[in-house]
Amino acid sequence: MPTTKPRILTGDTPTHTGLHLGHYVGSLENRLRLQDEYDCYFLIANVHAFTTLAEKPADIRANTLGIVKDWLAVGLDPQRSTFVLQSEIPAIAELTFLFAMLIPFNKVMRNPTLKTEIESKGLGDTYPFGFPMYAVGQCADILTFRPDLVPVGEDQEAHIEMCRDVALKFNQLYCGVGNRVPAEEHHKQGGVFPIPRAKVGRVGRLVGLDGKNKMSKSLGNAIFLYDSEKDVQKKINKIVTGRATATSPLADDNPLAQYIDVFLPRERAEQIKADYASGKEVMDGHIKAEVGAAINTLLAPMRERRARLEEPPQPGKPGGEEMVLGVIREGIKKANAQAEETLALAKKAMGLEFVNRTLH
C-alpha cells in the first residue's frame, strides 16, 4: 500500500561468516528502531558477492539465505519492512549501466572504501572489472528505491557521497534541475531522484578485537551474532589491554574501553572508566567477564531465533529454509513494483521510453 513515511534503503553483502557486532551497533539496531517510523527496504546484495566469490555460486546462495536468517534473528520484520533480493530486481542492473556513464572512472577508483577493500582482501591488481563496478552498483541499489536516508557505518559514507553525486548529476542533466538548486529541493523541482543522506548508527566504527582495525569479517577480529556464549567470552578474554599493572590506565583506543562504552549501561561504564583513570586497582579479567556477559545477554534472543530458522521441515510444518524463501518471494514482489516505477521514470527522463514493460 502507498505510504507517506520517508523511505530508508540499506543492506548487506552475503559472506560465509555472517554478520557481527560491528554490523549490529553500526546499522542493524538503527534498522530495528526505524521500522515503524520509515518505509524500510533492506537489500541482500548477492550480486555484489560475485565480485570476489564468482567461482563459488553455491556458497553465495547459502550465504544469501544466511543473511536473511541473521536479519530475522536480529528482529527485522518482513511484515513492516521489505526484504530485497538484488539478483531478482532487473531494474538495478539496468540503472547500474546507465549510472556508470555519469561517474568518471578515476573517481570510482579514488573511493576510499573501495581502496581499503582492495588492500584488506589482498586483491592487488588481480580483481575483476566487476569489483570497482560494484561501487556504481551500490548507487543503483540505493537510487532504485529513491530513499531519503541510508543507515550505514561511517566507513560507507564515501559510497553515499558518490550516490548523491550521481543523483544530482542525473537530475541536472536529464530533468532540468538547476545546478544551484539545493540537494534537498531536487525532487520537488522535478528531479527523478531524491538526494539521499547517510544516517550513521550510534557507533560509527566498532574496533575489532585486535585493536587495530574496525571489526571485520575478513580480518578475523570479529564477534559474530551467532557465536556461542563460550566463544564470545573467549574472544573478549583475548583482548590485550597493554596495562603494566592493575592500577595502570586503560587507553581510550583499546577495544575493551570501547566495548565498555557500547555494551554496558551508561552509569556502569562511566564508573569503570573513572576507576581506570584514577589509578584504582582494576582487574581486567573481571571487566572482560562483565562485558562478555552483557554481549551474551544481547545475543541470547538472536541465537534462539536463529536456531529455529535452522530447523529441518516437519510433517505439516515448514523448515527454516522454506520460511526464509517465503520471506524473499514476498519481498521481491513489492521491490520490483517500486524498482520498475523508478526505472520507467529514469528512462522517460533520458528519452529511452519506447514501450511499456511488465514483470511477471
Descriptive account of the structure:
This protein has helices spanning 21-34, 50-53, 57-74, 90-100, 105-109, 112-120, 130-143, 157-175, 229-237, 255-263, 266-278, 284-309, 320-349; strands spanning 7-12, 39-44, 81-85, 149-152, 197-200. It is mainly α and 360 residues long. Helix 9 packs antiparallel against helix 12. It contains 13 helices and 5 strands. The chain folds into 2 domains: 7-205 and 318-349, HUPs (Rossmann fold); 229-309, Tyrosyl-Transfer RNA Synthetase, CATH 1.10.240.10. Helix 1 links the parallel strand 1 and strand 2.
- Radius of gyration, CA atoms, in whole angstroms: 22 Å
- Helical percentage: 40-55%
What is the β-strand count? 5
Biggest sheet, in brief? 3 strands, parallel
Structural class: mainly alpha
How far apart the termini lie comes to 19 Å
CATH class group of the largest domain: Alpha Beta
Low-confidence stretches: none
CATH superfamily of the largest domain: HUPs
Q: Provide the number of structural domains.
A: 2
List the total number of helices: 13
- Order of neighbouring strands in the sheet with most strands: 1-2-3
Estimate the mean pLDDT confidence: 91
The outline comes out as globular
H/E topology pattern: EHEHHEHHHHEHEHHHHH
The CATH topology label of the largest domain is Rossmann fold
Instruction: Give the name of the CATH architecture of the largest domain.
Output: 3-Layer(aba) Sandwich
Fraction of residues in β-strands: 5-15%
Describe the structure concisely.
This protein is mainly alpha-helical and 360 residues long. The chain is built from 13 helices and 5 strands.
